[in-house]
Amino acid sequence: AADKINLIPQDLFAELCEQVIQQLNHKIPGVNTAELCQRMQTSGIEINIGDLAKIANILSFLFSTAARNNLSTEELVTTLGSAVSTLPKHALQVIRHVWNEQGKSIAVSEDARNMATVGQFVDMKWKLGVAMSSDTCRSLKYPYVTVTLTMADPSGQITDKSFEMTIPQFKNFFRQFKEMASVLETV
Question: COMM domain: which residues (predicted)?
């Protein structure tokens, strides 16, 4: 991972660190590695989303462990400097700066850690479509609903999950959401 970190410019690495800190503070549901990866690739950096997700996980582990152990900025940088001699200098500078500015704000309560292991719902999009024909059937005229759920997994990686439903399935789905809404109103 250190060789991939070396490829990332200081400003984008700082943005990645900031997003990790925000995710640990539950201010955002996860690090948007897909968007960051696309920006990096557009600027000519050869990195894939899997490598960027690994780096985000490493930073998340680093910052949460430092918070759990109440490390000062100097203790963190000294530990990193002695343990990980392969980290580029600009990365150590960014980690030092971000930890100095925002490190103490990380909430490491037991409840927050347990909640984070489940993942988090971020967004939902849907669209109505009609299948007109296929290779095997000339005339389908079959309506369907496509739902895309945006989720942040426990590591903070944001992913989209899509599925299709028939109209009766969608009506059942909608009815269950109405039931949940009515139960939540009583709480």
Answer: 120-187
What are residue 61's phi and psi, to 5 degrees? -65, -45
Tokens read off for 40: 């990096």
**pLDDT (tens digit per residue) in 65-109:** 888 888 888 888 887 776 555 677 888 889 888 888 887 777 554
Query: Could you give the CA distance from residue 51 to residue 4 in angstroms, rounded to a whole number?
Result: 7
CATH code, 120-185: 3.10.450
The conformation of residue 159, written as its DSSP 8-state character, comes to E
Which conformational region is residue 71 in: left (phi greater than 0), alpha (psi within -120 to 50 degrees), or beta? beta
Residue position matching structure tokens 């150590």: 92
In terms of Cα–Cα distance, which of 62, 41, 22 is closest to 158?
22
- Parse the chain into domains and list their residue ranges: 1-115, 120-185
User: Which residue in this structure is represented by tokens 């980290």?
Assistant: 87
Look up the pTM and report it.
Answer: 0.60
Each residue of 154-164: pLDDT tens digit? 666 788 889 99
